[in-house]
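Design a sequence for this backbone.
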């Protein structure tokens, strides 16, 4: 009696392109999430700085004067400046690690499905620095990687990606408006209004960073689970 052969393990429909192999995104994912947490912390500090600025300029607009107000104004300006520097450092550090994570995610996604990407691999980095196209190319790259990393045969939605990208763009637009209003302000009331707008921008950035952490964590987990499922050209992550 002949023993029946076991059914072959299903394999992805597309082979990996040259130079693409699976590597675990877990460490970079954790580092990116931690740095996004640092961005949230600096944004919270910036919200405090915005509130101080609003408080002082509100008193100035109401005609309050005195040595105490001058001290408060100097303190508010100092905190505002420190908050801006802290935000800048946190954003630059996070951007570097995030792009390293995204590159690894994209390469892995090509191993899963080489034909499911609308942008060439080089756009993974370049899309963020090209004017105009940086408004939608990065989102498209993340969405394509999301689809390629989903379990075989499943239909993945883009709700976390879309929510993150929408808030990210909105926070950038509000931040640009607030910065321009602050530079052009000539009265205490105009400065107060600009600080209020900046407070709103910082709150939006916090929400966008929270959603960014969600996207990083979910996409990292999706890739690890798919790689370890055995339904791959290579048996596991390298």
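Sequence:
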């Amino acid at each position: 009696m002949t023993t029946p052969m076991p059914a072959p393990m299903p394999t992805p429909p597309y082979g990996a392109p040259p130079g693409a192999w699976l590597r675990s995104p877990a460490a970079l994912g954790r580092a990116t999430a931690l740095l996004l947490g640092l961005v949230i912390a600096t944004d919270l500090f910036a919200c405090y700085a915005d509130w101080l600025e609003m408080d002082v300029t509100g008193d100035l607009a109401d005609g309050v004067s005195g040595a105490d107000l001058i001290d408060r104004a100097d303190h508010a300006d100092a905190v505002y400046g420190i908050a801006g520097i802290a935000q800048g450092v946190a954003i630059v550090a996070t951007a570097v690690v995030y792009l390293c994570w995204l590159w690894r995610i994209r390469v892995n996604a090509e191993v899963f499905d080489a034909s499911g990407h609308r942008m060439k691999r080089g756009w993974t980095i370049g899309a963020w620095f090209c004017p105009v196209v940086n408004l939608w190319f990065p989102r498209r790259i993340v969405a394509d990687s999301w689809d390629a990393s989903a379990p075989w045969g499943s239909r993945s939605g883009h709700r976390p990606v879309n929510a993150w990208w929408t808030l990210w763009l909105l926070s950038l637009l509000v931040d640009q408006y607030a910065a321009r209003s602050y530079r052009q302000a000539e009265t205490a009331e105009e400065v107060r209004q600009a600080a209020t707008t900046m407070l709103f921008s910082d709150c939006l950035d916090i929400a966008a960073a929270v959603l960014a952490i969600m996207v990083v964590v979910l996409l990292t987990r999706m890739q690890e689970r798919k790689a370890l499922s055995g339904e791959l050209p290579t048996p596991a992550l390298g």
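Residues 1-14, 234-238 have pLDDT under 50 and may be disordered.
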